Amino acid sequence: MSGAAAQRLPLEGMTELALRLVPPGDLGDSGAVSVIVEPVAGEAAWLEVCPPEAEGASIELSRGATALAALVRPAAGRDGRVRLGIPAHLTALALELDRGSVEASGLECRRLSALVKRGDILLRRYGGFLVASVGRGALNLEGLKGETLASVGWGQVSCFSCGGVLRLHVGDGSLTISDFRGATVELRGEKASVKAANAETDCLALEGRQISADVETAIARRLIVRAEQLDLSFRGLLGDGEHRVTAEQGCARLVLPETAPLKFDLSTGGGNLRCAFPGIEVGRRGRPSSGGRRLVGRWMRGTVELGVSLGRGDVCLLTYPVGATGAKQGIQSPQQAGGTIGRQGHH
After folding, report:
1. Which of 64-78, 92-106, 266-280 shows the lowest mean pLDDT across its residues?
2. What is the pLDDT of residues 319-342, one digit of tens each?
3. What mean pLDDT do residues 265-270 have?
4. Minimal CB count within 10 Å: which of 162, 208, 231, 335?
5. Contact (Cβ atoms closer than 8 angstroms) between residue 211 and residue 229
6. Would you tell me how many other CB atoms lie within 10 Å of the CB of residue 128?
């Protein structure tokens, strides 16, 4: 096929499309392929390999019972570009790419899979079930409202104005979240840094060997943090129920509303322990240590149960005033949040 013309893909009776793209020339070539996927009206799908002047591009099709597979090899000697038009009746789309980038917006298929071994993925305005994997590169998500399972071996993940469920595994990388409203944010990784702002979720879970997290103006109905090495800063609201932060070493700093109905148990095997809520020091669980400290307390109704335990390191639990300061920081009181996070108690 010449790269000049768009080729119609025979999707009659097909509900799934799997597209595999190889680098220009031999598999060992250093070239990359960029793929742009867009929704189209009607029943037909189309595929275009660019640029028009490039000869030698090829498409190999194979049909199954309900799925069409396409192997695309752009022309050798230059980076390849592919445009793909997807009709609304397609229920599943799978894209696999060795090197390059994938960009898609507004797709309506129920299931979407994107695999890039080395390169970037950009997905906008998608509400279905997404599986995304980047071996080395960047994963950028904007306006997603469904369920996302993602993995990045080495690189960056950004998530803006999303919702639903986000489950992410990172080998060595970073996660940036802004304006999230959804059920779950879950990150597991070997070495990961997290920066989140203006996020509201039923469950925020961070687990890994080395975790650095800066969470601002957040509402977490459940907070779970587990790490070997931890650097945690959390400012926001916690919901009624149990919340746990545990690490072998590091530091944990949490800033909660001064009116939080809190029951807390804070401990460290060696380090400083600072708490703005009234509490009493008791014996620390487990093997005694020379610098170990444990502080427990209950404030108001105690419906928010917070446990922080560090093998070694500093624990800090502070407060911020509800009202002008909280509003300025974009954090609502429990009443302003619709009563979904805890309930005010009385002295």
Report:
1. 64-78
2. 999 863 333 344 443 334 333 333
3. 96
4. 335
5. yes
6. 19
Which residues does 327 contact at the CB level (< 8 Å), separation at least 6? none
Residue 35 token pair: 């793929």
The Cα–Cα gap between 194 and 215 comes to 8
Rg (CA), the chain: 25
SS (H, E, C) the chain: CCCCCEEEECCCCCCEEEEEECCCCCCCCCCCEEEEEEEECCCCEEEEEECCCCCCCEEEEEECCCEEEEEEECCCCCCEEEEEEEECCCCEEEEEEEEEEEEEECCCCCEEEEEEEEEEEEEECCCCEEEEEEEEEEEEEECCCCEEEEEEEEEEEEEECCEEEEEEEEEEEEEEEEEEEEEEEEEEEEEEEEEEEEEEEEEEEEEEEEEEEEEEEEEECCEEEEEEEEEEEEEEEECCEEEEEEEEEEEEEEEEECCCCEEEEEEECECCEEECCCCEECCCCCCCCCECEEEEEECCCCCEEEEEEEEEEEEEEEEECCCHHHHHCCCCCCCCCCCCCCCCCCC
The size of the chain, in residues, is: 347
Which residue in 276, 231, 223 sits closest to 249, CA to CA?
A: 231
What are the backbone dihedrals phi and psi of residue 79, each rounded to the nearest 5 degrees, phi first? -65, 145
Contacts 24+ apart (CB under 8 A), 174-183: 182/145
Compute the half-sphere exposure of residue 57: CA atoms within 13 Å on the CB side of its CA: 25
Distance separating alpha carbons of residues 24 and 34, to the nearest angstrom: 11
**Token code pair at residue 3:** 């790269």
- Distance CA(110)–CA(132), nearest Å, equals 14
Strand 67-73 versus strand 16-21 pairing type: parallel
Q: CB 74: neighbour CB atoms within 10 A?
A: 29
